[in-house]
Fold DNA-binding HxlR family transcriptional regulator.
Amino acid sequence: MPNYYEPCQCGRVSEVLQRVGDKWSVLVIMMLGDEALRFNELRRRIGGISQRMLTLTLRTLERDGMVNRTVHPTVPPQVEYALTPLGRSLWEPVEALGKWAHQNLPNIDRARQAYDSANGVAASAHEAEEA
Amino acid sequence: MPNYYEPCQCGRVSEVLQRVGDKWSVLVIMMLGDEALRFNELRRRIGGISQRMLTLTLRTLERDGMVNRTVHPTVPPQVEYALTPLGRSLWEPVEALGKWAHQNLPNIDRARQAYDSANGVAASAHEAEEA
DNA sequence: CCGTATCCGGGCGGATACTG
DNA sequence: CAGTATCCGCCCGGATACGG
């Protein structure tokens, strides 16, 4: 069973991985895990995302077949976003990764502190460059 | 069982996820999955990464406790990089994600083609802006 | 409410040159 | 071989204003 990241599609897979790692994409997928959400509701829940980025993120996810966009022709307009089967299938490994991240945050923090105290934290004091 | 991405550490988890999604970090972790590698060997295998970025990526991974850096005081110097237990534990969900990406590349491609033909591909022809 | 367009600053990351 | 330092273009992404 050879590796999935063999030279040929290594770049392509990496590309998908980047999308997964994309800050907003992941949060959107997480948020849409259970329910369909409207634009601003999604925006409120995520918090800290600009309108522009949410739009762009959703468009990309839609284009990649991860989310469905449903427009209700009411006034004012209502737009609902939900995961597609493909999106839901992605949700699972992402969830696993999220679980890992959540569990290992303390480990990472400790590793960083250890590293920073070993190598000088003072190294970051080069920001105090001028007298 | 509430969500792992509740407001409190939502940002932190997302931060870790971003690192995972980072193009080079993921490739490094994948490459180091089975064996320890030297700097330039790693660089050659990844392909397309600049010396600067490989250094930065390795430093960050080291600081986060994902990889071990071992210097053999020979001449010329030899430096070997290997996954730590923490790094190896990350490797698993990443591998799962890689598997997903590999399996679903065709689906994503088809979704994109469908999307692009539905909405005008010509939209991207706005690059031909001037007469 | 939902989305697009425009402006613009900051940082990511490649290229290059230089050390031990 | 392994790494640091510097320069610099480019694109990401926030802010803002406007349209349906």
